[in-house]
Fold this protein.
Amino acid sequence: MKIKLDENLPRRLASRLAGMGHDVQTVGEEGIAGRVDPVVWEAAQRETRFLITQDMDFSNAQSFMPGSHYGILLIRLRTPSRRALIQRVEDLFREEDVAQWARCFVVATERKVRVRWPAKPGE
């Protein structure tokens, strides 16, 4: 999976996901850290990358309708320490079939994963 990690996630997560076989790029590597959200969003879309973020500006499923983009994973932890973030994302990528999340809007908490799927043709 091609992934874009937002700047609000630990950089070490990039190497962990790459070690699982994913093509990972960080906002910092691209030189757009600190830029406004639309710049990050456009970069992810231009590069056909699945965006992983904690940024609530990406939380509106109506604005980011499944099927209209390459996918978003919004991580919502009560205590988002670096260790907890890395562990939760690693667990998700080990335990879930994340390849099916392409073009989906996904929200993950400590205990739950909610996936909004693209509408099927004719729905």
